[in-house]
Amino acid sequence: MTRWPPVAAMLAGGILGAAQIGKVPAAMTTIGAEFSLGLTGAALLVSLFALMAALGGLGIGLAVARIGPRRALLSGLGLGTLAAAAAALAPNTPLLLLARVAEGAGFLLLVVAGPGLIAACVAPRDRGFAMGLWGTYMPAGIALGLLSAPLVEAQGWRLAWLGLALALGGAALLCIWLVPRAAATEAPAAAPILAQLRALAAARRPLRIATAFATYNVMYFGIAAFLPARLESLGAGTGGAGAAAALAALANAGGNLASGLLMRRGVAADRLVVVGALGMAVTAAGVYLVPQPAAVVALAVLACGIGGVLPAACFALLPRAVPDPALVAPAVGLVIQGNNLAQLLAPPLIGALASSSWALASLPLLVAGLLATLAGRALAR
């Protein structure tokens, strides 16, 4: 029997966790000015959120099955709430950066534990739909964070960030109340960790999925993190730029849902990876090549919509990519680690290139699109 209330509570937690990523681009210019960071330095606030996952995503994936997914989920929500509040109140740059690292650690626990708990809460016939909903947590959350831009403009970034921290705390309380302990009956994996790692490497396909997902995120965060600054450089106001970036993020969520529908109709997931990577690369590069604000917004929305078919396809491929169900959680951790490694490294690089010329910022997006396409073709083979 499907229990939708706990699924909704966990989805709310995932969305509000991801909102802690989207809140940074909405306030990047303001924070950069207050702390004298510049565009490149402010971009570190996006990257440091991913630091813990980039260093330990696979390890967390191995650990979650042992400590229990429900405990990991609630710990992630609690840590994320406290760290988000600390970031909103940070008096100086070091404490702000440290809080962002802690936020990233909490988010990692949340997103690794979420899929297994959701699968345990739904009937088999509803599992695909439920996982498709979960796949929207990142774009929907980033859109929510970006929508804080008008509040940043009117009341300042600290109040906006504190409000998002309180909302995340509310989601944590909902999960404590609604997520049943029975959903966390997953037994620890019997195989030793080293044996699991060897099996994961031997399977190869998880590594290819992780590559495709990581390079997709170079393109996605290349838009999500810098679209407001790009539009402001073309004369747009802070509120309007943040709203445009939120629209692009919502288009990405729509792409995730469309991907699920296409796969239900029989379209191969690996084909969606290739199409999404190619289409996103071309349109994302155009965001930093065309000089008209309206065209920039249109290209960003199109790029995020087309690229949105890729994450859902990757998550659909994962269960079939491992030889043992016990390897699913480590495989999810591997994919998240690759995702966050891209999120850690790409924004400072793109920010540095954009500081010289916005046109140069298109180069990493084109290279990432090529690598994602090659990974998709390898999956098809």
Automatic annotation (TrEMBL):
Cellular compartment(s): Cell membrane
Domain Major facilitator superfamily (MFS) profile: 6-381
Matching InterPro entries: MFS, MFS_dom, MFS_Efflux_Transporters
CDD domains assigned: MFS
Transmembrane residue ranges: 42-65, 72-91, 97-122, 129-147, 159-179, 207-227, 272-290, 296-318, 325-346, 358-380
Membrane topology reported for the UniProt record: Multi-pass membrane protein
Primary localization class, coarse: membrane
Keyword field: Cell membrane, Membrane, Transmembrane, Transmembrane helix
Keyword Cell membrane on entry: yes
Keyword Transmembrane helix applies: yes
Protein name: MFS transporter
